[in-house]
Records
---
Amino acid sequence: MNAYVNDIPIPELIEKLDAYMVGLGYTASTLRHYRQAWNALKNLALAEGTTHFSKELGFKLLREHYKIDPYEDNLGEYKSVVRRSVMLLLEFQISGTIAKRQPKGDYEIPAEFNAAGNHFIESLEESNLSPGTVYNHKRYIYSATSFFVSHEAFGFKHLNNELINLYLKTFAGYSKDYISANMHSMSRFLSFAHDRGYTDKVFVFPTVTVYKDRRVPEYYTADEIFKILSSIDRSNALGKRNYAMVLLGARYGLRISDIIALKLHELDFENNRISITQQKTGKPLTLDILPDVGWALIDYLKNGRPDVVCENVFLRHTHPYKAFTRGESMQYMLRQYALSAGIWKAGSEKRCSFHMLRYSLASDLIQQGVSLTTISGILGHSELNVTTRYSQLDVPQLKACALEMPV
């Protein structure tokens, strides 16, 4: 059997996908950037003497023409669209369909799998997983079950290993982390469905091994943090917001998920405290309000924050002035200020993120001789062994850090 549903020349593949996306309701303005990338792909194929699309050709277009790393997790809006144009072609070539993206937060599992899906999500919530982890499980299950339904698998009785394998093929070109997370989620969901009587079928997924601790984390020095903060123009409302957000990341090492979820009632200026429940771990964390953080928050709340009714501290500064959506990384914002400050690290275009501020704080504390136990409390880690990974940030002190660990 042919590995591809649409094993046809590139111009025909693009034309067929374009028509398919129009049928799904994609507008001309949305398709404009996709079509531009597809035209560039046609030109590259002509130059290469290639008639059929392949992952290798698509990745060459991304790397050489657009300077995009196909495996980068956090890209700007335009580069994300360009990369998606390649991934959509690959998915459509392999499976004959694509899963139309849903707005973040609107992942409604298809009716054919809804009962089992919602039951599974409820079980995850009851097991005290963090809201962010539960959200990701729902997102992955939504994508898979939507794919199954689009291939006429209207429920578990129509689902089979052949269709599951076809779905797995659509991950060609994605990072091992992303593939592993999706397969882990689907494996748990289908095992749950079997155990709870939604299906009598047993599905087996391959294991994807991901090694996460091999690269020393990228971070900013204290001087670089100072330059980044100094590059933010606080004379306007947007600058006041961004300064306060970056300062929270730099001074406390807060995850971006906790910063964008910060609520007004969690700011206790009278008692000089910030009290939150961490999005990733679900654990409470209380922090003293440092002077510069306090003044930055007050400046934003009084002179920068849009005057709307919303419990979140930080809002979008475009109408209708809503809170940020879960999962937004704000990487583009931090990268902008780092570049304005003249800071460019090898690979920072790929890895510039708020987590670098978290690593920066950990590095600074380690160099001051602060114990890993104390650092764990400051960063809000759920377990001490999570904090030990941060010891890579200061190689000369590895032995000293290890001695502080209980045996």
---
Amino acid sequence: MDKPEILNLYKQMLLLREFELAAQVACRSGETPGFLHLYIGQEATAVGICAHLSKKDWVTSTHRGHGHALAKGMDPKILMAELYGKQDGCCGGRGGTMHLYDREVGLFGTNGLVGGGDSICSWSWLGSTAQEDTPSRCSIFWRWCSQSCRFS
């Protein structure tokens, strides 16, 4: 990697961190409804994975999906609007912090289940293999998910 690429990845990680800190302040002050699962400290994972994906590639995520949404290319204003429950959010303000979706950037959904995205990811790939140009699928989950019966 050359220096401009490395700086771009660093800027993306910084964006994720600043977004999460702003979301934390909004949640603690009672400005946003519901619960908040932060992605602080995990920015390099989302940015590193999504740097190798195109917009047509799909990602599924878990309850800590803000970082994945931003790293995949979701507009921070649209994501923050979703956290505030605003109609301008990616799901019209109905998804909140754990149920994000943005087909335009390839975010096929986040959900409240730690390993919920892997089945969605697998079945969506199987359902589209007949297409000529099948995009890649990436399910991002936490290590506790790997101890479930799906992987045992």
---
Amino acid sequence: MQKCIHLIEQPNQEHATVEVTGSNEVLFDLCTKQCLEVWRNDIRRNPLESQGYNIYRSADPDIAKDQWSKVNDKPIPHGSGQRAQYRLKDLPDGAHYYVTAVNALGFESDPSEVVTARDTPKVVLKSVLLFKETTDEGKLVEAVTLPWFEIIEILKKDPEAAFQISDRIWEEIIAGAYHRAGFDDVTLTPRSGDFGRDVIAVKRGIGTVRVIDQVKAYKRDHLVNANDVRALVGVLHGDGASKGFLTTTSDFAPKLKVDPLVTPFIPSRLELINGESLLKRLVELGRK
């Protein structure tokens, strides 16, 4: 089943190809000759014939397939003759792809092989922080590393790459942002048992200011809801921090900022940072 829809680097008459032109345009040339029967050996084979194809993209080819972003809004239909074509203009850098066939019921075949569009860089997902000692609350940040800046450069060119970065790397990126902003102690909390606090940052001066940040690395259409924010308010009280931030790669539910259980805390005790604001802050901190 997979061999009908796999992507290959060298074109032929039956299989998909990916090419990058000088204008940064990608042409997908998708197999239709064999894929009409892609469902024949599938237990979900009603109807037998595939309706078309879905193309998925990721800046990182190693993350789980269900975390890749679909680039077409509707299944790409079969074309005339042996092939169907689909063009993406102004494609951002860092492109890896796979294809699935989809039937009329919406079921998809197994993912194809992954192909990398030539001459495009890959998102660097190495650790973006250096750490000092470990405390009861987590690891103390000593410095940000070069990949922290590289990721910001990629996000500037391709904001959609934000949805390909893992939750943990996003927590590191946010912790690095607090370090770059001049906080004296920045702690990246453990993956589990963090009590709703992903990052803890402390600034000392005339007094001591302690802030906590909860990071929600969500897809674009996954909005942070009121329950998420109310839960952070509870964490804020329990921790005793001066202020809490909820940072997300997506956005917040439309009526959240008028929620009577949330608005009394904004902005003095609570601040909500959506994906657009997050990118702006990272770009500013990257220039320092």
